[in-house]
């Protein structure tokens, strides 16, 4: 199910009816000036709210996901500890939608291309467009930029 945010049609919320309604209320309460913010400012505040309020709904700003930093970093630590075979779906989505990688057909195709942590580190140094992931991100994608900086620190890139 999908709903546009009550006060800002740039933002779409996806999930079940209850999750969507809760998310709408939480965003309005935590970011009352959302409508006045630029996309880059709004994405950071939405990300902070997702993490602080443990929002389960998917939130898109102008059709692009706003990512949970807390969840991605938890996923990176899991992969570091248990290996790429334990790549969570959320982290896989982030990697192929935001970091300069194709989907490789599915998550298992992605894992076969990047089977070790060393391969993952190398991907962050040079993605499939030949760029460091951090520099590949557009300037408006501030939530992903903050995440990639933290991933690089966690992986020692």
Report on the structure:
There is one protein chain. By secondary structure, the protein is of the alpha+beta class. It folds into 2 domains: 64 residues, no CATH class; 87 residues, no CATH class. Helices cover 55% and strands 8% of the residues. It is built from 8 helices and 4 strands, in the order ββααββαααααα. It has a 4-stranded antiparallel beta sheet with strand order 1-2-3-4, with helices on one face. A hairpin with a 2-residue loop joins strand 3 and strand 4. Helix 3 packs parallel to helix 8. It is globular, with a radius of gyration of 16 Å. It starts with a strand and ends with a helix. The mean pLDDT is 94.
Shape: globular
- Binned, the helix content reads 55-70%
H-E string: EEHHEEHHHHHH
Main sheet makeup:
4 strands, antiparallel
Counting structural domains, the number is 2
Number of helices: 8
From the alpha carbons, calculate the radius of gyration and give it in angstroms: 16 Å
Q: Order of strands across the widest beta sheet?
A: 1-2-3-4
Secondary structure class reads: alpha+beta
The tally of beta strands, per DSSP, is 4
Strand content: 5-15%
On the 0 to 100 scale, the average pLDDT is 94
Low-confidence runs of at least 5 consecutive residues: none
């Amino acid at each position: 199910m999908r709903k546009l945010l009550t006060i800002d049609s740039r933002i779409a919320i996806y999930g079940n009816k209850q999750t969507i309604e809760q998310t709408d209320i939480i965003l309005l309460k935590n970011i009352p000036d959302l409508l006045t913010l630029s996309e880059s400012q709004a994405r950071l505040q939405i990300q902070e709210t997702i993490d602080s309020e443990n929002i389960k709904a998917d939130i898109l700003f102008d059709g692009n996901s706003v990512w949970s930093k807390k969840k991605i970093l938890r996923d990176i630590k899991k992969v570091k500890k248990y290996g790429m075979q334990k790549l969570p779906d959320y982290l896989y989505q982030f990697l192929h939608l935001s970091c300069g990688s194709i989907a490789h057909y599915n998550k298992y195709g992605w894992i076969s291309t990047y089977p070790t942590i060393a391969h993952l580190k190398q991907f962050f140094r040079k993605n499939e467009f030949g760029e460091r992931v951090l520099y590949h991100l557009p300037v408006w994608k501030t939530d992903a930029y903050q995440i990639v900086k933290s991933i690089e620190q966690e992986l020692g890139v």
